[in-house]
Amino acid sequence: MKAKPYGIVCPISHACEVLEPRWTIPILVEMWDGTTRFNDIRRAVGNISPALLSRRLKELEVQGLIERIEDKSTGNVDYVRTNRAIELEPVLNALGNWAQCNIEAQAALANTDVPTLMWDMRRLFNRDELPNRQIVIQFRFADEGLDHDIYWALIRPEKPVEICIKIPGFDVDLYVETNRISLSAIILSRTTISRELDAGRLFLSGDSLLVRTIDRWLYHRTKENPVEVRKLDTITNSTD
Prior knowledge:
Layout: H1 9-19, H2 24-32, H3 38-45, H4 50-62, E1 66-70, E2 77-81, H5 83-86, H6 89-102, H7 105-109, H8 114-120, E3 135-141, E4 150-155, E5 162-164, E6 174-178, H9 180-187, H10 193-199, E7 203-206, H11 208-212, H12 214-217
Helix pairs in contact: 2-3
C-alpha cells in the first residue's frame, strides 16, 4: 500500500492559516490582475469594509505577501505583490479550475455580487473583436433588491473601458437584459449565450453586428483563455 504523504500535512496547514482568513484570496487575485490602490482593490473585491480591507492588507504585509509603497511627494500608496505571492499564481489558478469542474454552477454563482461583476467587466471585452469606434452597452439586471439594476459600459478606442451607473450621455448601441447568475455563468462557460437566449434569461437588442458577434467580443472561459476571467471565480458576497 502506498504510504500517505504525512510530510505535506503540516506545510498545507500552515498555508491554510495564511490564506484562510476571509477576503485574503480575492484580494490577492485582484492584485494579480494589476490593481494596486486601496479604493480600487475595495471596489473590485466588493462588499468589504475599509477597516477590514486595511486589516487584511496589513496581515498580508506581515506575511511577506505584499509590499506597501508610499510616494512621499504625492502621498499615494500602492500595494504590490512580493515574489512569495507571485509564486501562488499556479496554486490559485488550479483552485479556480478545480472549482470550475467540481462545484455545481447554481451554488457557485448564487451569491454573485452585481456591482463587483460589473466593475470587473472592464477587463472582459475583447476589443480586437469590437468595431474601432465608441460603443455604449446598457446592462439591465432583472434581479430583485439591487441598489442599481442598470449599468452602462462605455468603450472608446485607446481609452480604458468605463462602467457607469448614470446615463453617460451617449446613444446606446446595445441593450443587454439579463440576471447576475446568467451573465456570470456565460463568462465562466457554465452556459452559453445561445442557451441563455433560448431560455429567456438573456435578451439582446440594438446594433445587429454587436448582437451577432457577442460570443467573440465578450470574454468567456475556454481552454485557450482560462485565466482572463480567473477573478470571477472569487466574486461572492461575504461578510466577516
